[in-house]
Amino acid sequence: MTDVTSLDPFVEAKAPAASPRTYAVGDVHGRLDLLLRAIQAISDHVGEGSFRVVMLGDYVDRGPDSRGVIEFLMALQRRWPVVCLKGNHEELMIQAIADPGNRRLERWLEYGGDQTLRSYGLGKDDLADVPPEHLRWMASLPTTTGDKHRIYVHAGLLPGTPAHRQKEETFLWIRERFLQARPGEFEAHVVHGHTPVWEGKPDPAAPELLEHRTNLDTGAFATGVLTVAVFDAEAPGGPIELLKVQGEQTERFIPDPPEFAAQQEAPRRRRGLPGWLSRRAGGAA
After folding, report:
1. What domain count does the chain have?
2. Which of 95, 146, 194, 247 is the most exposed place for a label (fewest CB within 10 A)?
3. Is residue 133 included in any domain, yes or no?
4. Does residue 70 lie within any of the structural domains?
5. Three-class SS state of 108
6. Cβ-count burial of 149 within 10 angstroms (0-12 exposed, 13-18 middle, 19+ buried)?
7. Cα angle 35-199-251, degrees, rounded to a multiple of 5
């Protein structure tokens, strides 16, 4: 059994090229306590079998320990076969810190960024003190991964459009058009997070299990429930098993910003972050 309940030491765990099991983990949002329990649950479940872990994004904001979550995942990737996908809250954080004007900073703080800064011991005037390696890690995260039967993504896909023709903003932000799509409108089963509650998912603490998609956002930051779905790479469709970990229920839900507004901001982040990092490095020198 692999002990992963502390940051260090880890025991090496490597997966072969073809991993028959994928463990997909829903939105964490600063709940390091739940993430540690989820990783332990995966360790207990997988035994000696080959596997990989796919984190579905939204590691920061709202919960109490975003910094701890990022540091844990960065370390875990060095020891376990883990794919961390980018979520819209990572994108919000990058935008706000790289180019805080035009209400980008205010928007991020309104949707949980203030809790993230507190986890670093910082305030809104201390953006330059956020570790640049954390920002680089978030900026470099992929937006999708998959196996021959499934696509893993943070928010979802545009119905009727091949995955290779979709925009990054769609992977991070889409909601209604994706959620209301019907079976047959996607190339493969879609595994995602991003939406803890909507008219088709009235219980935020329960995953949404449909023929064409699996929604694993169980609102961990508020409900105290973090969900892990187990997928067999050789079997099509939804999960073969669910693992749930539970902790303290903390607060009410806060809706995300409208997807169209975030999509308009995304291109500015691409230009802003390298310049921000360069300016910071120059100032440090």
Report:
1. 1
2. 247
3. yes
4. yes
5. helix
6. middle
7. 40
Residue 2 lies in a domain: no
CA 219 to CA 27: how far, in whole Å? 7
* Cα–Cα distance for residue pair 136/155, rounded to 1 Å: 21
pLDDT in tens, 113-123: 999 999 999 99
Q: At 87, which helix (H) or strand (E)?
A: none
| Segment among 3-17, 84-98, 153-167, 207-221 with least mean pLDDT | 3-17
Alpha helices in 165-212 (DSSP H): 168-173, 176-179
The answer to whether the CB of 154 falls within 8 A of the CB of 65 is: no
3-state secondary structure of 79: coil
Domain ranges, residue 213? 21-284
Which stretch of DSSP H or E encloses residue 262? helix 259-284
Global pTM value: 0.86
Does any domain span residue 254?
A: yes
Mean pLDDT of 39-68: 95
